[in-house]
Amino acid sequence: METSHRAMTSRERTELEGLVSAPTSAARIGLFLLAVWCAGWLSRILQRALLGEEVGGAAAMLWLLPTLTVAAFLYLRGRRWTGGREFRRRVRRDLARDEIALHRIRVVAALEAPEVEDEGPVFFVAESGGATLFFSGQEMARQKERGFPWTEFEVSESPESGHFFRLRPLGPPFEPVGTRRPLSFSEAKDLGVLSANYGRLDAGLDDLSIEG
User: Are 132 and 125 contacting, i.e. CB atoms less than 8 angstroms apart?
Assistant: First the structure.
């Protein structure tokens, strides 16, 4: 893999700014509070149905336990989905740096895990430098129609936060592309393809080549 850098375009800057903008943060907080309010409302209804209206003392506050549990779960899960404060700090560093990283990939082997429902196919690519990469998400269905994976292509991402922008073909489609059975939920979770559209794997293609 060869990496170079270029100046950030206005479109890329706008996309990154959207990740840390005040309206985005406000919308995220609003959705969190709405979900917690709904959890509390349902908990109180369930408590009244089970214990009745005439509940006093500490028992009257039992509805808070499931509500706080839901709030903690959503908070921790939200940090995983959005990257948390550290991710937003890295995005701001990218904006200050004003550069995009371009990774030039030369493919030596490729493997496809077929699409499950509407989640898009997952591609595993072994590149000439020895790394194994994955590409996942609904966008990969469209990239497959364009001929992905190509013998050579370019990945653009923000250098600090690793925000994935796009793929650009630099060669013809790579042939042949092996296939394996679709990934199970646990496999996808362990490999990290549920939380990112692009990344590196410790496993090699031989470890991933599980036939259907």
Answer: yes
Q: Which amino acid is at 100?
A: I
User: Number of folded domains in the chain?
Assistant: 2
Alpha helices in 52-182 (DSSP H): 64-82, 84-97, 139-145
The residue written with tokens 């991933």 in the block is 208
| pTM (predicted TM-score) | 0.71
Residue 50: other Cβ atoms inside 10 A: 9
* Helix, strand or coil, per DSSP, at residue 114: coil
Q: Are residues 82 and 128 in the same domain?
A: no
CA distance 205 to 178: 10
Tens digits of residue pLDDT in 121-152: 999 999 998 999 999 988 899 999 999 999 99
